[in-house]
UniProtKB/TrEMBL annotation:
Residue ranges, compositional bias (Basic residues): 11-24, 471-487
UniProt biased composition (Low complexity): 1-10
InterPro entries per UniProt: FH2_Formin (IPR015425), FH2_Formin_sf (IPR042201), Formin_Homology (IPR051425)
Organism expressing this protein natively: Octactis speculum
Domain of life (superkingdom): Eukaryota
Name of the protein this chain belongs to: FH2 domain-containing protein
């Protein structure tokens, strides 16, 4: 039928036995235990460093000599729990977010009017006469050329067009005092030989300490992070355990491997459990078995404590700063020699030359230290099976921080869950104790009442019985309603009627006394039977 089977035919098919489910394909893990159910997929990055012959080689990494099949016994006892927590379920479709709109940028142009305004402001802040500026540069007078003034003068360095105009004005022997203050400032700077290079040297006194100290701190911080990752034992052990778990998940596929990359461990924190109230993610499970059996892994946070500081360092910015510093240093080195020759033995100029030489030596030492850091970084990346040409050091640091952070968070969550369960158990025990105490109290109260009742019944004597009978009779007679017949007010009762009513009352009283006597005698017989049974029990 081109339109397909009818609904009635479908119903009949279901009645006969329904559609047969395909048999679950058995998966095999060549490097460890295999799951009995279909597991969630965990996509891992395989270490595939190849040697000259094109074969995969783990030479230079901690994966060399690692027997994944033999070492997989570490997780055999945990595989049933893994099957319960991470069976394959259909993921919910996520809503796609619209891409952010690109921000528009604006361009600002600098006009000549702003240049004039800027020069006027700088000149007022300098508070120096043009001749004082010229003299201080020639003599390298650092008492006049303070750090703040050098920064201001660096912004006032004449441009090429301004230099040509000012030199032409000076060549015509025109009076410089007729110029405005900002032109006189520029003219004084033009008259200083290589004024821009001299300002570079003076700025270097301020910038060298800042730049070199910052670069040295950055290099040392990154070096400490590299050394930690090179020497840690907890992180490789965690990766070994993750290999076994991933092979258990990927049994029967091509993803059963003996070595994985750091990026694979991020997916352990993303894979959610089927029982979120017990174990949230696969990383929580790894933290659980580590705390239970493989406690060496718990030291991973302490052994990688400097990696976060190392990842915060922007080495590209450090390189740029060093490159700019090197350019300044080359200009300063050349100018310091020329300045010393034209100073005719001025001591302040000679001290500047010594300062530049010291900066050169310190910079060379820093560059050597940085080259050493880069060599160590390559060795460390190779140890973890990473290709230094494909991954940057900062990117690897970020991966380690993400993995260690998720492991630490999982460990904290597990401990908080244990504390919560312990608190609930303690609260339940307190409730149980309160209920038991209440039941015991009720039991004692009932026993006391029974004892009191037994004493009261045993205390009755024959004399007391008669008095009780009479007391009950009187009370009954008082409670009994008096029945009177309504007679007319004019008629009086006869003597015969009064005698009949009196005999009737006596009869009622005697019958009530008989009932009360029989009731009391019945209670006494019950008490006697109880005492007999108690005496027989005691015997």
């Amino acid at each position: 039928d081109p339109e397909g089977p009818s609904p009635s035919s479908k119903k009949s098919a279901k009645k006969k036995g329904g559609f047969k489910k395909p048999a679950v394909k058995k998966v095999v893990n060549d490097l460890g235990p295999s799951p009995k159910v279909k597991m969630k997929a965990i996509f891992i990055d395989i270490v595939d460093i190849k040697d000259k012959t094109g074969k995969v080689s783990y030479e230079g990494t901690f994966w060399k000599g690692f027997d994944a099949k033999e070492d997989s016994r570490k997780i055999e006892e945990f595989t049933p729990e893994l099957e319960v927590l991470f069976t394959s379920v259909k993921p919910k479709a996520e809503k796609k977010k619209a891409p952010p709109k690109p921000k528009t940028t604006t361009v600002t142009l600098v006009t000549d009017g702003k240049r004039v305004q800027s020069l006027n402001i700088m000149n007022k802040k300098l508070r120096l006469k043009p001749e004082d500026i010229k003299e201080s540069f020639l003599n390298a007078d650092v008492t006049v050329l303070t750090d703040a003034r050098v920064e201001l003068l660096a912004k006032c360095v004449p441009e090429d067009a301004e230099i040509n105009v000012l030199k032409g004005y000076e060549k015509d022997n025109k009076d410089p005092k007729k110029l405005r203050d900002l032109e006189q400032l520029l003219l004084a700077m033009v008259q200083v030989p290589r004024v821009s290079a001299k300002i570079t040297i003076l700025r270097l006194k301020v910038l060298a300490e800042e730049n070199l100290e910052a670069a040295e701190n950055d290099v040392n911080t990154v070096m400490m992070a590299i050394d930690q990752l090179q020497s840690t034992t907890a992180l490789p052990e965690l990766m070994h355990l993750c290999v076994h778990v991933s092979n258990f998940f990927n049994a029967g596929t091509k993803r059963v491997v003996s070595a994985i990359k750091m990026k694979s461990l991020e997916k352990f924190a993303q894979l959610k459990s089927n029982k979120m109230q017990e174990v949230k993610t696969l990383m929580h499970f790894m933290a659980q078995i580590s705390e239970t059996k493989y406690r060496v892994v718990l030291e991973v946070m302490e052994q990688c404590s400097n990696v976060k500081a190392g990842a915060a360092i922007d080495l590209s910015a450090t390189d740029i700063n060093l490159s700019d510093h090197d350019k300044l240093l080359k200009v300063a080195t050349k100018e310091s020699e020329a300045w010393l020759k034209e100073s005719y033995g001025i001591k302040s100029v000679a001290s500047i030359k010594d300062f530049v030489d010291a900066v050169v030596k310190r910079t060379d030492d820093l560059i050597k230290r940085k080259e050493e850091m880069e060599k160590k970084a390559k060795i460390m990346l190779l140890r973890y099976g990473e290709d230094p040409e494909e991954i940057e050091l900062k990117e690897f640091f970020d991966l380690v921080i993400s993995v260690v952070g998720s492991f630490d968070a999982a460990l904290t969550d597990n401990r908080m869950l244990k504390q919560k369960i312990a608190r609930q158990a303690k609260a339940e025990e307190v409730k149980k104790q309160k209920r038991a105490a209440l039941e015991e109290k009720k039991k004692k109260k009932a026993e006391a009442a029974a004892v009191a009742l037994g004493e009261s019944t045993s205390a009755t004597t024959p004399q007391n019985r008669n008095s009780q009978i009479l007391r009950k009779a009187r009370m009954a007679s008082r409670r009994a309603p008096t029945r009177r017949k309504m007679r007319p007010s004019s008629s009086r009762p006869s003597k015969r009627d009064s005698e009949d009513s009196k005999s009737k009352r006596n009869l009622d009283i005697s019958s009530r006394l008989d009932r009360i006597r029989s009731q009391v005698m019945g209670d006494e017989s019950d008490n006697d039977k109880g005492s007999d049974s108690s005496s027989s029990d005691s015997s």
